[in-house]
Amino acid sequence: MMNEDSASTSTSTSGGGGVKKFFLRLSQIYQSSLDRSTPHTRMRWVFAGFVLLLFVLRIFIYQGWYIVCYALGIYHLNLFIAFLTPKIDPEFDPYAQEDDDEGPNLPRHSNEEFRPFIRRLPEFKFWLSVTKSTAIGLFCTFFDFFNVPVFWPILVMYFITLFCITMKRQIKHMIKYKYLPFTRNKPRYQRVSQVAGGGPSIGGASSK
Protein backbone atom coordinates (compact mmCIF):
# COMPACT_ATOMS: atom_id res chain seq x y z
CA MET A 1 0.00 0.00 0.00
CA MET A 2 2.80 2.34 0.89
CA ASN A 3 4.60 1.45 -2.34
CA GLU A 4 1.51 2.36 -4.36
CA ASP A 5 1.21 5.72 -2.57
CA SER A 6 4.86 6.55 -3.13
CA ALA A 7 4.61 5.55 -6.78
CA SER A 8 1.57 7.77 -7.35
CA THR A 9 3.28 10.66 -5.57
CA SER A 10 6.40 10.34 -7.70
CA THR A 11 4.29 10.11 -10.87
CA SER A 12 2.36 13.29 -10.02
CA THR A 13 5.58 15.09 -9.10
CA SER A 14 7.25 14.11 -12.35
CA GLY A 15 4.15 15.15 -14.28
CA GLY A 16 4.03 18.53 -12.55
CA GLY A 17 7.73 19.02 -13.22
CA GLY A 18 7.21 18.24 -16.89
CA VAL A 19 4.43 20.84 -17.20
CA LYS A 20 6.57 23.39 -15.39
CA LYS A 21 9.51 22.71 -17.72
CA PHE A 22 7.22 23.02 -20.74
CA PHE A 23 5.94 26.46 -19.73
CA LEU A 24 9.45 27.55 -18.76
CA ARG A 25 10.74 26.52 -22.17
CA LEU A 26 7.79 28.28 -23.81
CA SER A 27 8.53 31.51 -21.94
CA GLN A 28 12.21 31.28 -22.92
CA ILE A 29 11.29 30.91 -26.60
CA TYR A 30 8.90 33.86 -26.31
CA GLN A 31 11.51 36.08 -24.66
CA SER A 32 14.14 35.04 -27.20
CA SER A 33 11.80 35.97 -30.05
CA LEU A 34 11.20 39.39 -28.48
CA ASP A 35 14.94 39.94 -28.05
CA ARG A 36 15.61 39.09 -31.71
CA SER A 37 12.86 41.45 -32.89
CA THR A 38 14.12 44.44 -30.89
CA PRO A 39 16.34 46.02 -33.59
CA HIS A 40 13.77 45.46 -36.38
CA THR A 41 11.55 48.42 -35.61
CA ARG A 42 9.91 48.71 -39.01
CA MET A 43 9.08 45.02 -39.29
CA ARG A 44 7.63 45.00 -35.77
CA TRP A 45 5.25 47.85 -36.56
CA VAL A 46 4.29 46.27 -39.87
CA PHE A 47 3.27 43.17 -37.94
CA ALA A 48 1.33 45.27 -35.39
CA GLY A 49 -0.42 47.07 -38.25
CA PHE A 50 -1.32 43.73 -39.84
CA VAL A 51 -2.90 42.46 -36.61
CA LEU A 52 -4.78 45.75 -36.22
CA LEU A 53 -5.99 45.49 -39.82
CA LEU A 54 -7.36 42.00 -39.14
CA PHE A 55 -9.21 43.36 -36.11
CA VAL A 56 -10.71 46.28 -38.04
CA LEU A 57 -11.75 44.03 -40.94
CA ARG A 58 -13.49 41.65 -38.57
CA ILE A 59 -15.37 44.54 -36.92
CA PHE A 60 -16.33 45.94 -40.32
CA ILE A 61 -17.40 42.65 -41.90
CA TYR A 62 -19.43 41.27 -39.01
CA GLN A 63 -20.77 44.65 -37.83
CA GLY A 64 -20.33 43.97 -34.13
CA TRP A 65 -18.09 44.08 -31.07
CA TYR A 66 -18.14 47.89 -31.00
CA ILE A 67 -17.58 47.92 -27.24
CA VAL A 68 -14.37 45.92 -27.71
CA CYS A 69 -13.28 48.30 -30.45
CA TYR A 70 -14.00 51.34 -28.27
CA ALA A 71 -12.12 49.91 -25.28
CA LEU A 72 -9.15 49.06 -27.50
CA GLY A 73 -9.11 52.56 -28.95
CA ILE A 74 -9.11 54.15 -25.49
CA TYR A 75 -6.27 51.87 -24.38
CA HIS A 76 -4.21 52.67 -27.49
CA LEU A 77 -4.80 56.38 -26.90
CA ASN A 78 -3.45 56.09 -23.35
CA LEU A 79 -0.40 54.23 -24.65
CA PHE A 80 0.20 56.91 -27.28
CA ILE A 81 0.02 59.70 -24.71
CA ALA A 82 2.53 57.85 -22.49
CA PHE A 83 4.75 57.44 -25.57
CA LEU A 84 4.71 61.21 -26.17
CA THR A 85 5.28 62.15 -22.51
CA PRO A 86 8.79 62.55 -21.05
CA LYS A 87 9.82 60.06 -18.39
CA ILE A 88 10.25 62.84 -15.83
CA ASP A 89 7.39 65.29 -16.13
CA PRO A 90 8.89 68.80 -15.87
CA GLU A 91 5.74 69.96 -14.10
CA PHE A 92 6.52 67.69 -11.15
CA ASP A 93 10.32 67.62 -11.39
CA PRO A 94 11.75 68.88 -8.06
CA TYR A 95 15.13 69.49 -9.72
CA ALA A 96 13.80 71.69 -12.50
CA GLN A 97 15.24 75.17 -12.65
CA GLU A 98 12.89 77.81 -11.37
CA ASP A 99 13.30 80.64 -13.81
CA ASP A 100 11.16 82.52 -16.26
CA ASP A 101 11.83 79.98 -19.00
CA GLU A 102 10.50 76.89 -17.26
CA GLY A 103 10.98 73.63 -19.05
CA PRO A 104 12.76 70.28 -19.06
CA ASN A 105 16.46 69.94 -19.53
CA LEU A 106 16.21 69.24 -23.25
CA PRO A 107 18.24 70.78 -26.12
CA ARG A 108 16.48 73.54 -28.02
CA HIS A 109 19.39 74.87 -30.12
CA SER A 110 21.86 73.19 -32.48
CA ASN A 111 24.90 74.30 -30.47
CA GLU A 112 23.67 72.68 -27.25
CA GLU A 113 24.80 69.28 -26.00
CA PHE A 114 22.84 66.40 -27.52
CA ARG A 115 20.43 64.82 -25.04
CA PRO A 116 17.94 62.25 -26.33
CA PHE A 117 14.26 62.44 -25.43
CA ILE A 118 13.54 59.81 -22.76
CA ARG A 119 9.95 58.62 -22.93
CA ARG A 120 7.69 57.50 -20.14
CA LEU A 121 6.76 54.51 -22.32
CA PRO A 122 9.65 53.30 -24.51
CA GLU A 123 9.02 52.46 -28.14
CA PHE A 124 9.45 48.71 -27.70
CA LYS A 125 7.01 48.53 -24.78
CA PHE A 126 4.62 50.72 -26.74
CA TRP A 127 4.74 48.31 -29.68
CA LEU A 128 4.43 45.24 -27.46
CA SER A 129 1.42 46.63 -25.60
CA VAL A 130 -0.30 47.64 -28.85
CA THR A 131 0.29 44.21 -30.39
CA LYS A 132 -0.83 42.30 -27.30
CA SER A 133 -3.97 44.38 -26.79
CA THR A 134 -4.93 44.14 -30.46
CA ALA A 135 -4.46 40.36 -30.42
CA ILE A 136 -6.62 40.13 -27.28
CA GLY A 137 -9.27 42.31 -28.94
CA LEU A 138 -9.18 40.12 -32.04
CA PHE A 139 -9.58 37.04 -29.83
CA CYS A 140 -12.60 38.60 -28.09
CA THR A 141 -14.39 39.00 -31.43
CA PHE A 142 -14.77 35.21 -31.63
CA PHE A 143 -17.14 35.18 -28.64
CA ASP A 144 -20.70 36.45 -28.91
CA PHE A 145 -21.02 37.48 -25.26
CA PHE A 146 -18.54 40.31 -25.96
CA ASN A 147 -20.82 41.56 -28.73
CA VAL A 148 -22.90 43.94 -26.59
CA PRO A 149 -25.56 45.81 -28.62
CA VAL A 150 -24.74 49.51 -28.68
CA PHE A 151 -25.37 52.53 -30.89
CA TRP A 152 -21.89 52.78 -32.40
CA PRO A 153 -22.05 56.45 -33.64
CA ILE A 154 -22.22 57.53 -29.98
CA LEU A 155 -19.00 55.63 -29.24
CA VAL A 156 -17.34 57.22 -32.27
CA MET A 157 -18.32 60.70 -31.06
CA TYR A 158 -17.09 59.92 -27.54
CA PHE A 159 -13.76 58.69 -28.85
CA ILE A 160 -13.23 61.66 -31.19
CA THR A 161 -14.08 64.09 -28.38
CA LEU A 162 -11.76 62.34 -25.94
CA PHE A 163 -8.97 62.20 -28.54
CA CYS A 164 -9.23 65.92 -29.30
CA ILE A 165 -9.29 66.92 -25.61
CA THR A 166 -6.37 64.64 -24.72
CA MET A 167 -4.19 65.70 -27.66
CA LYS A 168 -4.97 69.38 -27.03
CA ARG A 169 -3.81 69.01 -23.43
CA GLN A 170 -0.67 67.16 -24.54
CA ILE A 171 0.21 69.79 -27.16
CA LYS A 172 -0.27 72.56 -24.59
CA HIS A 173 2.08 70.66 -22.27
CA MET A 174 4.67 70.41 -25.06
CA ILE A 175 4.38 74.13 -25.84
CA LYS A 176 4.53 75.15 -22.20
CA TYR A 177 7.71 73.20 -21.44
CA LYS A 178 9.20 73.62 -24.95
CA TYR A 179 10.01 70.03 -25.89
CA LEU A 180 9.38 67.72 -28.81
CA PRO A 181 8.77 64.00 -28.23
CA PHE A 182 11.30 63.06 -30.91
CA THR A 183 15.08 63.01 -30.90
CA ARG A 184 16.53 65.28 -33.55
CA ASN A 185 19.88 66.72 -34.61
CA LYS A 186 21.94 63.84 -33.30
CA PRO A 187 25.61 64.48 -34.23
CA ARG A 188 27.17 62.15 -36.77
CA TYR A 189 30.93 61.88 -36.99
CA GLN A 190 32.84 61.32 -40.23
CA ARG A 191 35.00 58.27 -40.86
CA VAL A 192 38.79 58.54 -40.90
CA SER A 193 38.83 57.69 -44.64
CA GLN A 194 36.56 60.65 -45.37
CA VAL A 195 38.87 62.92 -43.37
CA ALA A 196 41.88 61.73 -45.38
CA GLY A 197 39.99 62.42 -48.60
CA GLY A 198 39.43 66.07 -47.72
CA GLY A 199 36.22 65.75 -45.70
CA PRO A 200 35.50 67.47 -42.41
CA SER A 201 37.61 66.65 -39.37
CA ILE A 202 36.74 63.94 -36.88
CA GLY A 203 35.71 66.50 -34.31
CA GLY A 204 33.32 68.19 -36.75
CA ALA A 205 29.80 66.85 -36.49
CA SER A 206 27.04 67.21 -39.00
CA SER A 207 23.42 66.99 -38.01
CA LYS A 208 20.74 65.01 -39.75
Question: Helix and strand layout, with pairings?
Answer:
Blueprint: H1 2-37, H2 41-62, H3 66-84, H4 123-140, H5 152-177, E1 188-189, H6 192-196, E2 205-206
Antiparallel strand pairs: 1-2
Description:
The chain is flat. 6% of the residues are buried. It has 6 helices and 2 strands; from the N terminus they run αααααβαβ. Helices cover 61% and strands 2% of the residues. With 208 residues, the chain is an all-alpha fold. It has helices at residues 2-37, 41-62, 66-84, 123-140, 152-177, 192-196; strands spanning 188-189, 205-206. Helix 3 (66-84) runs antiparallel to helix 4 (123-140) and helix 3 packs parallel to helix 5. Strands 1-2 form a two-stranded antiparallel sheet.
Summed up, what is this model?
This protein has helices at residues 2-37, 41-62, 66-84, 123-140, 152-177, 192-196; strands spanning 188-189, 205-206. With 208 residues, the chain is mostly helical.
Strand numbers in spatial order across the main sheet: 1-2
Number of extended strands: 2
User: What's the tally of helices?
Assistant: 6
Termini separation (Å)? 79 Å
Poorly predicted residue ranges: 99-104, 201-208
| Helix coverage percent | 55-70%
Largest sheet: 2 strands, antiparallel
- One letter per element, helices H and strands E, the order comes to HHHHHEHE
Structural class: mainly alpha
Q: What amount of the residues lies in strands?
A: under 5%
